[in-house]
Each structure stands twice: as C-alpha cells, then as structure tokens.
Amino acid sequence: xxxxLPAPPQASVAVAxxxxxxxxxxxxxxGRNYAAHAREMGKDPDREPPFFFTKPADAVVDTGATIxxxxxxxxxxxxxxxxxxxGAEGRAVPKEKARDLIWGYGVGIDLTRRDLQTRxxxxxxxxxxGKAFDNSAPCAPLVRRAEAGAIDDARIWLAVDGERRQDASxxxxxxDIPEIVSIVSHTMVLRPxxxxxxGTPAGVGAVTPGQRMTGGVGDLPEIDxxxxxxx
Length: 231
What we know:
The chain has helices spanning 35-40, 114-122, 128-131, 177-187; strands spanning 12-13, 22-23, 27-31, 51-55, 60-62, 66-69, 76-78, 80-86, 102-109, 112-113, 137-139, 143-144, 155-160, 163-169, 195-197, 205-206, 212-217, 223-230. It has 231 residues and is mainly beta. It has a single domain, classed as Fumarylacetoacetate hydrolase, domain 2 (Alpha-Beta Complex). It is globular, with a radius of gyration of 17 Å.
C-alpha cells in the first residue's frame, strides 16, 4: 500500500523475556475503579457505573525511560494501574468468557495533567488534554497470562523517590478484570493489540522534574520512570 506521507512506526510494548514486542492498537482507561480513589476525587463509587477514556497508542513508553515534564501543566499526577493486554477479538463477550480474550498483563502509569483535567470538568468539556498527551502511558514489559501468576488479589503500589504513595490490592477493584473486559466489548469490538488500563487506587499525587517513579503489581515486572526537565 502506498501513502503520501511516511507511515508512522507501530506503537508497541516490550514482552518479558522475549525479543518480539506486543503491538499496541488502542488504549482504553477505566476511570475511578477503586472506591478509595473515587472518594479522594470527591465522588461516590457506589452510584456510578464504570466509565472510560482513551489515550493514543503512541503514548506508551518503555520502563527505564526519562520522559520530559509535559507542557501546559503545573500539576502532573501519577496513577499506577494494572494493564490488561488483549490478544483475541471479541464482541459482546460475557464476563464468564472474558479471560479468553486476555493475552497478558503488565504494570502501567496513567500520567495526568490534573490541572487541565480539572478545568475541563468545570467547563463541561472532554478530558483529552488532561489525559491523552505525549508519553502519558508508560508500561512495563507484559507477561503472558499463563505466566503471570495470581493477579486478582495482587498488591498494586507506586513509590516516588522510594517513598510509597499508592498501596492497595487488585481485589479492591469495583469492576473486576473480567467485568471490565466484558463491558468494553459490549461498546466496541475488542481486537488484538488493545490495552486496558484498569484504574488506580488511592494516593495519586504530583511528580516534578527529577523525580523517579517505581511501581508494581504482584510478581509482574516493575515499572521505573523518571521525570525529566520540562519539554
């Protein structure tokens, strides 16, 4: 196929122990999927069904990277997340069959320009500029589902410069992993290469240039990202 411009490179995520990488098609993110985080954001988790936002596929960044502090914000927040990688196509998949679509799992960070997000909320506008910016979806190497071990009750945590800020259990998800996969598949067809960032626990907060974020979920490969000077 011919294009009038050079085609952009395929966005991808590393796979633990393998040279081949996982191609990223789309990134779906679940909002306020831990009750304590919903409360710290001033919301009642018992009254809201799950909702979603997206990030561009090329927002992914490998662990070990130093990423520039993004423009147009003075309040960049970290949100540690369990990432679900989709490896099979599925439409309107029941919860009981949702795991059949899952290729593997990883550890990600949903970086958020909180001040831009807050202003958008106050004005009744979309969140895109607060969430879907360059380098906003760091992701550690993925692990195949059969090799990932216990995930549903794994610890999920994030530290900034070695100080633990977020620490919870995946068991605390309001909408668990199969439910989330099923819900997304009822809205649009899930296809191989899709990633789902499943939500963050309480303890989100600001990071500044020079700070280092580390985080993990159970026995999955940890993520390690440093914030560089303003880009």
